[in-house]
Write a structure and sequence with these properties.
The protein contains 4 helices and 7 strands; from the N terminus they run βαββββαββαα. By secondary structure, it is of the alpha+beta class. It folds into 2 domains: 87 residues, TATA-Binding Protein (2-Layer Sandwich), CATH 3.30.310; 81 residues.
Length: 175
């Protein structure tokens, strides 16, 4: 939660805040002039605290020296769902790639047919070079996806810890 006092009357502070939010391409979800405004900001494909899709709620309260504005931000449900689904699918693909690599490595080492041995079978015979190539390829793909998955988790953690960055920028624009 972010809180700031501005030296403006509540009506002027609300009008300025709304203008700044509209200038920053926010979509207004709800408003109760001049005490509350809720906006949706960011993109489903955003990967930073400022660009990730989120809901931001602003509350304005008249105080002696002006207006106190408090805001809270939360990630949009569709952004979180897309991220979770992407991570789950990545884990599944990594697991399948590792399974393929292990199965093909076992095929090369033992000449025993496995679930993925059909990939390296040509005219009913084992092609060792094909099996080794596919095993190496699927292993590299698994490692690549694991790095991407780790990056995605890092992005989610970073975005969650810095979720109020946009709200802070908005309030700083009111000064």
């Amino acid at each position: 939660m972010v809180e700031r006092n501005v030296g403006l009357e509540i009506e002027k502070a609300y009008a300025e805040l709304k203008a700044v939010l509209l200038e920053k391409n926010c979509m207004i979800n709800a408003e109760e002039a001049p005490v509350r405004i809720s906006v949706r900001q960011g993109s489903l494909w955003g990967v930073s605290p400022v660009t990730a899709k989120k809901n931001v709620n602003y509350r304005l309260e008249a105080v002696d020296s002006g207006t106190r504005i408090t805001c809270s931000s939360s990630l949009a449900a569709d952004w979180k769902n897309l991220t979770i689904i992407g991570c789950v699918l990545s884990v599944v693909v990594v697991a399948v790639c590792l399974w393929m690599a292990v199965d093909l490595d076992t095929l090369v080492a033992t000449q025993q047919q496995g679930y993925w041995s059909w990939i390296a079978t040509v005219d009913g015979y084992l092609d060792v070079q094909t099996a080794e190539t596919f095993a190496g390829l699927t292993r590299m793909l698994a490692v690549f996806l694991a790095f991407i998955l780790a990056a995605e988790v890092a992005i989610v953690v970073y975005v969650q810890f810095r979720i109020n960055t946009f709200a802070e920028e908005t309030l700083n624009a009111l000064r």
